[in-house]
C-alpha cells in the first residue's frame, strides 16, 4: 500500500512539474509571428489565384511549342491489311523483266501495306507565322497577368496587416481611456465619500466608464475579425493564432512627384502593359484573318511496302514511293475571310480604346494616391503637436479638479479629447500607409521584389 502511495505521489509531482511548461507554451504567445514581408511571401505561396495563373503560364509555354511545331513536317507510319474476295491479278510471267512485283501497282488478294508519310505545309497564307507571334505574345500576357494578381494580393495583405496594427492601436488607446476613466471615477468616489465632490460628479464619471467599455469590446472584436481575414488570405487555419513583428503603426514620408509617378505607372503598371499587349495581339489578329486569302502550298512524300505476305514485304520489289506538291488559291469563299478581317479590325479598334481608357484611369489613380498622401501628412503634422497639448490639457484639468478650480466635466472632456486626437493621429498613419500602398500598386512597384533583392 505504501509503495502504491509513493508511485501516485511521484505521478502527481511529475504532472505539476510538467504542466506549467505545457501551459507556458500555450499562453506565451502566438504560434506564428509575421512581418509584412513574411505575410506577403506566405500569401504568394498559398493564394489560389496566383497558383492558377502560374499554370496558365505553363500552358502558354506549351502553346509556343505547339506553334513552333507548325513549321515542321509531320511524319506518320501506316500499316494495314485488306483481304479482297475478288482481285484481278497479272502473272509475273507477263512482265518478267520488271524490277518491281506487278502487285505493287495492282494490288494483292491478301493486301499487306506498311509505309511512312511525310507532309509539310510550306505556306498557308502566313497563318503559322502569325500564330507563332501570338503564342509568344500570349506568354508575355500571362506573365503580366501574374504580376497583376500578385499586386492585388500584395495590396490586400498590406491592407489587412496595417489594418490589424491599426486595430491594436485603437485597442491600446481605448484601454488607456478606460483606465483613465476608471481611475477618475475612483478618485471622484473617494472625494464624494469625503464630502468634497457631488453625487452628480460620481454618476457622471461612472457613466463615462460605461460609455468606454463597449468601445473596448468593439476594438477587441475588430482585432479578431481582421485576424480571421488575414488568416483566410494566407490560407492559415482559423485555430492558429498569429502575431505581428511590428508593434505599432509607423510611416516614413516620400517626396510627391506626380508626373514621375505617372510616367512610372505607364511603364510598369501591369494593367497598362496588358492593354498595350492586347493592342498588339489584336493587330496580329488582323494578319491572321488575312491569311484566309492564301495561297496555300503543301508538299508530301510517301514510301510504302506492299506485298501479299508479310514475310516478303521488305523485299525491294515490293517497295514504292511518291512525292508531290499542291498549290491552292482561294477565288471565292462567300466573303468569309473579309468578314473575319473586318471583325479583327473592330477588335483592334476596341483594344486601342481600352488602352486609352486604362491610361486615363491610371492618371486618376495616381492623382488620388498623391492627394491622399498629402491629406494624411497634413493631418499627421497637425495632430502630432495636438497629442502633447491634449496630454497637458488633461494634466491641468486633473490638477484643477483636485484644487476645485476645474469641474468634473472638464476632466472627462479632456480624457475624450486626448483619446480622439490619438485615434486621429493613428488613423492618419494608416491612411498614409494605405495611400502609399495604393501608389505602389498603381505605379507597378513591387514591395516583394524590393525587399527580396
Give a structural overview.
With 453 residues, the chain is α+β, with helices and mostly antiparallel strands. It has 2 domains: 30-72 and 125-294 and 334-451, Up-down Bundle (Outer membrane efflux proteins (OEP)), CATH 1.20.1600; 75-124 and 296-329, Single Sheet (Outer membrane efflux proteins (OEP)). The chain is 68% helix and 12% strand. The chain has 11 helices and 6 strands. The chain has helices at residues 2-27, 36-46, 48-69, 103-106, 127-194, 199-233, 258-268, 270-290, 336-402, 408-443, 447-451; strands at 32-34, 74-83, 110-124, 242-244, 296-307, 319-328. Strands 2-3-5-6 form a 4-stranded antiparallel sheet, with no helix packed on it. A two-stranded parallel ribbon has the order 1-4. It is elongated, with a radius of gyration of 40 Å.
Short description:
The chain has 453 residues and is α+β, with helices and mostly antiparallel strands. Helix content is 68%, strand content 12%. 24% of the residues are buried.
Chart the SSEs and their pairings.
Blueprint: H1 2-27, E1 32-34, H2 36-46, H3 48-69, E2 74-83, H4 103-106, E3 110-124, H5 127-194, H6 199-233, E4 242-244, H7 258-268, H8 270-290, E5 296-307, E6 319-328, H9 336-402, H10 408-443, H11 447-451
Parallel strand pairs: 1-4
Antiparallel strand pairs: 2-3, 3-5, 5-6
Structural class: alpha+beta
The order of strands across the largest sheet is 2-3-5-6
Number of domains: 2
Radius of gyration from the CA trace? 40 Å
Spatial separation of the terminal alpha carbons: 70 Å
Shape type: elongated
Largest sheet: 4 strands, antiparallel
Quote the beta fraction.
5-15%
Query: Low-confidence parts lasting 5 or more residues at pLDDT below 50?
Result: 1-28
- Helix proportion range: 55-70%
Strand runs, count: 6
Mean pLDDT: 88
- CATH H level, superfamily name of the largest domain: Outer membrane efflux proteins (OEP)
The appropriate CATH architecture of the largest domain is Up-down Bundle
DSSP summary: helix tally: 11
CATH topology of the largest domain: Outer membrane efflux proteins (OEP)
Could you state the order of secondary-structure elements as H and E?
HEHHEHEHHEHHEEHHH
Amino acid at each position: 500500500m505504501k509503495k502504491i502511495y509513493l508511485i501516485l505521489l511521484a505521478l502527481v509531482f511529475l504532472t505539476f512539474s510538467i504542466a506549467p511548461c505545457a501551459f507556458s507554451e500555450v499562453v506565451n504567445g502566438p504560434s506564428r509571428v509575421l512581418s509584412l514581408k513574411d505575410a506577403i511571401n506566405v500569401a504568394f505561396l498559398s493564394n489560389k489565384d496566383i497558383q492558377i495563373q502560374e499554370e496558365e503560364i505553363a500552358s502558354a509555354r506549351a502553346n509556343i511549342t505547339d506553334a513552333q511545331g507548325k513549321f515542321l513536317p509531320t511524319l506518320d507510319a501506316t500499316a494495314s491489311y485488306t483481304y479482297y474476295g475478288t482481285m484481278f491479278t497479272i502473272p509475273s510471267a507477263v512482265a518478267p523483266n520488271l524490277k518491281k512485283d506487278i502487285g505493287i501497282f495492282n494490288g494483292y488478294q491478301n493486301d499487306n501495306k506498311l509505309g511512312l508519310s511525310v507532309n509539310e505545309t510550306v505556306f498557308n497564307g502566313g497563318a503559322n507565322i502569325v500564330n507563332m507571334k501570338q503564342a509568344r505574345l500570349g506568354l508575355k500576357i500571362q506573365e503580366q497577368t501574374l504580376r497583376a494578381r500578385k499586386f492585388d494580393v500584395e495590396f490586400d495583405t498590406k491592407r489587412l496587416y496595417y489594418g490589424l496594427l491599426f486595430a491594436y492601436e485603437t485597442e491600446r488607446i481605448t484601454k488607456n481611456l478606460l483606465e483613465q476613466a476608471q481611475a477618475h471615477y475612483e478618485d471622484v468616489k473617494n472625494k464624494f465619500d469625503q464630502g468634497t465632490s457631488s453625487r452628480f460628479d460620481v454618476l457622471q464619471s461612472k457613466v463615462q466608464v460605461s460609455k468606454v467599455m463597449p468601445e473596448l469590446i468593439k476594438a477587441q472584436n475588430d482585432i479578431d475579425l481582421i485576424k480571421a481575414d488575414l488568416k483566410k488570405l494566407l490560407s492559415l487555419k482559423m485555430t492558429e493564432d498569429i502575431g505581428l513583428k511590428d508593434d505599432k503603426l509607423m510611416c516614413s514620408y516620400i517626396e510627391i512627384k506626380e508626373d514621375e509617378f505617372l510616367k512610372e505607372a505607364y511603364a510598369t503598371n501591369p494593367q497598362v502593359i496588358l492593354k498595350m499587349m492586347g493592342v498588339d495581339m489584336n493587330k496580329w489578329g488582323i494578319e491572321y484573318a488575312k491569311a484566309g486569302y492564301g495561297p496555300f502550298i503543301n508538299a508530301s512524300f510517301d514510301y510504302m511496302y506492299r506485298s501479299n505476305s508479310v514475310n516478303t514485304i521488305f523485299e525491294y520489289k515490293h517497295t514504292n514511293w511518291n512525292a508531290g506538291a499542291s498549290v491552292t488559291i482561294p477565288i471565292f469563299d462567300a466573303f468569309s475571310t473579309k468578314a473575319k478581317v473586318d471583325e479583327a479590325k473592330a477588335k483592334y479598334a476596341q483594344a486601342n480604346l481600352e488602352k486609352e481608357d486604362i491610361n486615363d484611369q491610371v492618371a486618376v489613380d495616381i492623382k488620388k494616391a498623391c492627394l491622399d498622401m498629402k491629406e494624411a501628412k497634413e493631418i499627421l503634422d497637425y495632430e502630432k503637436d495636438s497629442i502633447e497639448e491634449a496630454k497637458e490639457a488633461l494634466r491641468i484639468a486633473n490638477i484643477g479638479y483636485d484644487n476645485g478650480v476645474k469641474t468634473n466635466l472638464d476632466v472627462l472632456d479632456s480624457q475624450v479629447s486626448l483619446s480622439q486626437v490619438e485615434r486621429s493621429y493613428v488613423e492618419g498613419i494608416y491612411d498614409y500607409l494605405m495611400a502609399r500602398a495604393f501608389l505602389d500598386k498603381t505605379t507597378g512597384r513591387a514591395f516583394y521584389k524590393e525587399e527580396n533583392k
